[in-house]
Write a structure and sequence with these properties.
- The structure holds 2 protein chains of 2 kinds.
- Chain A has 8 helices and 8 strands; from the N terminus they run H-E-H-E-H-E-H-H-E-E-E-H-E-H-E-H.
- Chain A is of the alpha/beta class.
- Chain A has one domain: Rossmann fold (3-Layer(aba) Sandwich).
- Chain B is an alpha/beta fold.
- Chain B has a domain of 116 residues: Thiamin diphosphate (ThDP)-binding fold, Pyr/PP domains (Rossmann fold, 3-Layer(aba) Sandwich).
- The longest helix of chain B has 17 residues.
- Classes of the chains: A alpha/beta, B alpha/beta.
- The structure holds thiamine diphosphate and magnesium ion.
- The site of magnesium ion has 8 residues of chain A, from helix 4 and strand 5.
């Protein structure tokens, strides 16, 4: 169990810091809070938000990363969402996409549904699982300093990169980005593929 | 190694050539014995990336990402795997993402293992409930046309399409071996 008093990072600040350096990276967010976190930073065509598909964020990121090997693909998702797709860590590690980074915003709870504790609260080490699966870079971040050291890895290290950011279990205001599937889909494809998007 | 009785898998080579012609790049799978030959062919094609999954729903998410990134894919799975995909298929339906899956059927024609029957019998209905169009060729001759038409419907008309490959085509699993 992580002592809560070790955790000082605010989720909104952490996500904002990570996205500050994104450049033209493509962003996939998991359902719920991480989508609101990304929307609070800004809504862009290169963002694809999952409003469902719980457990699928990292694998969706893998599909994009394999299709777009010359672009950086960043997945930001919650601990509950990642726990639902744990097998995907093995699948991603075996594929070894050099351009994929997965960030888990870990509040040790299912924030969106009322802050019920997740397995990470009881000691399950997501970064350890990713490392054991074969992610060449995998770490857990507790402080602003560690976050600073890690941000460049997310965009530059040969992936797949995995980072768990331990954040306070606070509820931030909900910021709603667009949610219509076809709109998000066309907008993202347009940003990635340009004229080829209507193929 | 499990083997299949009664049937040749020559149809696999033909199905594979349809996948090649349709420009399939990502081939996601949890293996079924009936797909063994197609998986091998895909693995040895330099234009295709074979992605072994731990559970079939990963394949649904993967292929959604593939298409968002500009590549076409196919999910190869056994009928039992359809049960693992249901909630993920909601994303395919909501976003109307092209989706092609070739499903090796179990639990119907001449099944030996009773545990395969419930999911095998429910496969077509569950897929339809999730907005997936289902083709169900009964013969090897019909299979080729079905895969071709399914790929066309998926990628030209942006639809989710499943081809159920019957045990009449695949053959029975040989429990004697
Ligand atoms: C398959 C499925 N099961 C349950 C839910 C309900 N649900 C929505 S958000 C959520 C919690 C997500 O927790 P986490 O990923 O940790 O995000 P947080 O809000 O804590 O950042 C759950 C359980 C769902 N949407 N889909
Ligand atoms: Mg959480």
């Amino acid at each position: 169990m992580t002592p809560q008093d070790e955790i000082t990072l605010d989720r909104r600040e952490a996500v904002a810091r990570i996205l500050e350096d994104r450049g033209d990276a493509l962003l996939i967010t998991g359902l719920g809070s991480t989508t609101w976190d990304a929307a609070a930073v800004g809504d862009y065509p290169r963002n694809f938000y999952l409003w469902g598909a719980m457990g699928g964020a990292a694998l969706l990121g893998l599909g994009v990363a394999l299709a777009q090997p010359h672009r950086r693909v960043l997945v930001i998702t919650g601990d509950g969402e990642m726990l639902m797709g744990l097998g995907g860590l093995a699948t991603i590690a075996v594929q070894r996409p050099g351009n994929l980074s997965v960030v888990v915003i870990d509040n040790e709870s299912y924030g969106e549904t009322g802050m019920q504790k997740t397995h990470t609260h009881h000691g399950v080490d997501l970064a350890g699982l990713a490392a054991a699966a074969g992610f060449p870079t995998s770490r857990t971040i507790y402080s602003r300093g560690e976050l600073e050291e890690t941000v460049s890895l997310l965009y530059e290290a040969c992936g797949p990169v995995f980072a768990v950011v331990k954040v306070e279990a606070t509820v931030a205001p909900t910021v709603l980005p667009p949610r219509d599937g076809p709109y998000l889909r066309d907008r993202f494809r347009g940003a990635v593929l340009g004229d080829g998007a209507s193929e | 190694m499990p083997s299949l009785m009664n049937k040749e898998s020559g149809w696999s080579d033909e199905v594979f050539s349809v996948l090649q012609n349709m420009g399939i790049r990502q081939v996601a799978y949890v293996p079924d014995a009936g797909h063994a030959r197609i998986i091998e062919l895909c693995q040895s094609d330099s234009h295709m990336r074979a992605v072994s999954l731990t559970t079939e729903e990963e394949g649904v998410a993967l292929l959604a990402g593939a298409w968002l990134g500009g590549e076409r894919g196919v999910l190869l799975m056994q009928s039992s795997g359809v049960g693992n995909c249901i909630n993920m298929l909601a994303m395919i339906q909501e976003c109307r993402i092209p989706f092609l899956t070739l499903i090796a059927m179990r639990g119907e024609w001449g099944e030996f293992n009773p545990w395969q029957v419930p999911m095998g019998q429910a496969t077509g209905g569950l897929l339809r409930d999730m907005g997936v169009i289902v083709y169900r060729p009964d013969t090897t001759e019909q299979l080729m046309g079905a895969v071709n038409a399914a790929a066309q419907l998926a990628f030209a008309a942006n639809r989710a399409v499943a081809v159920l490959i019957s045990q009449q085509i695949i053959g029975f699993k040989n429990w004697q071996k």
